[in-house]
């Protein structure tokens, strides 16, 4: 079984941009944001809104769900790192998701 190559949301969108040989300013203009904000997204300093992620997905012709998942898992990972939680927290969260689903 091969392991999936892990990347952050910022790394993913930067790679999409670089692969197409597009400068940040052109992507930022299309997204109607400042190029410095796009740079922050690429460096994982800021996280864009779901609506902006969907616009990025449309621009690059990729599945918006994949980019949204990438951004959301970044948020979870950074929170775990910041709070210095361990992997037990993830297992507990998975169990809690299943519990909440069963209540609906």
Written account of the structure:
With 104 residues, the chain is mainly α. The protein has a single domain, classed as lambda repressor-like DNA-binding domains (434 Repressor (Amino-terminal Domain), Orthogonal Bundle), CATH 1.10.260.40. Helix content is 71%, strand content 0%. It has six helices and no strands. Helix 1 packs across helix 5, helix 2 crosses helix 3 and helix 4 packs across helix 5. The protein is elongated and about 45 Å long. The termini are far apart. The mean pLDDT is 91. This is XRE family transcriptional regulator. Pfam families: HTH_3. Keywords: DNA-binding.
The major beta sheet can be summarized as: none
User: Which class in CATH terms?
Assistant: Mainly Alpha
Tally of helical runs = 6
CATH superfamily: lambda repressor-like DNA-binding domains
The CATH architecture classification is: Orthogonal Bundle
Average residue pLDDT: 91
**Rg over C-alpha atoms, rounded to the nearest angstrom:** 16 Å
Unreliable parts:
none
**What fraction, in percent, of the residue positions are helical?**
over 70%
Please report the distance between the alpha carbons of the first and last residues.
35 Å
Number of strands: 0
| N-to-C SSE string, H for helix and E for strand | HHHHHH
Number of domains: 1
Report the principal-axis shape: elongated
Derived structural class:
mainly alpha
* CATH-derived topology: 434 Repressor (Amino-terminal Domain)
Strand content: under 5%
Keywords: DNA-binding
Organism: Mucilaginibacter gilvus
GO molecular function: DNA binding; DNA-binding transcription factor activity
Protein name: XRE family transcriptional regulator
């Amino acid at each position: 079984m091969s392991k999936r190559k892990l990347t952050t949301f910022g790394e993913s969108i930067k790679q999409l941009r670089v692969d197409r040989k597009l400068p940040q300013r052109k992507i930022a203009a299309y997204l109607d944001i400042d190029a410095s904000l796009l740079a922050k997204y690429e460096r994982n300093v800021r996280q864009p809104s779901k609506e902006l992620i969907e616009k990025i997905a449309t621009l690059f012709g990729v599945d918006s769900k994949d980019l949204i998942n990438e951004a959301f898992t970044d948020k979870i990972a950074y929170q775990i790192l910041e709070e210095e939680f361990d992997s037990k927290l993830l297992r507990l969260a998975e169990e809690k998701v299943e519990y909440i689903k069963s209540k609906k």
